[in-house]
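Throughout our pipeline, every protein is held as a single compact record rather than as scattered files. The remainder of this section carries one protein's record, kept here as part of the documentation.

===
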Amino acid sequence: MKTFKYLFIFLLITSFLPQINAQSMSTKRDTKILIKTSQGDITAILYAGTPYHSANFIKLVKSKFYDGLLFHRVIENFMIQGGDPTSKDATPGQHLGSGGPGYTVPAEITPKYFHKKGALSAARTGDQMNPTRRSSGSQFYIVTGKVYTDAELDRTAQMNKTVFTEEQRKAYTTIGGTPFLDGQYTVFGEVISGIDVAVAISKVKKDRSDRPETDVKIISIKIIN
């Protein structure tokens, strides 16, 4: 009887460990990463305020998970997406975008982090299959976006039943972004240099599935601080 009692207590405690670890990590500083691509280098930071996503991304980077994968979906004035493990050594025309590490990450959606140009965000499956908006375990996208007018933001806010802060409005009307994604996906970092590389990637010639006709590879991703 005592054995079952102790086992129950052990399971109860361990069930809270991921949350405890994530909360403790939220007090740490942001993490800087270097994304080396076949088109050039992109430097970004991972937010300490999104501990689950940052810890997961760091774990994958340290295991070299991303090395050799493709940016398999690129759309001008929108974003570039990568992180599908099936894209490594993919054949021309092969359908990509459904691969992952075999798990998802709890959503960490907050108004503090939004889809301005350069935002690093987690891809996910749609609401119908994924009502809690859990993120893909590995797929991410970098926002290239476009500049919006205040009138366009007003219409977007009305459609999405949301309110943009002054900070969001300033960003979307100056550097641009994808405001219609706010509140839908987890933003867990941002590009601090090399956004021009991401924009160039978004403009490459692509097929009907938005896959670049000439592969754009993630050569490596490294932690640099």
In short: Confidence is low (pLDDT under 50) at residues 1-27. DSSP finds six helices and ten strands in the chain.
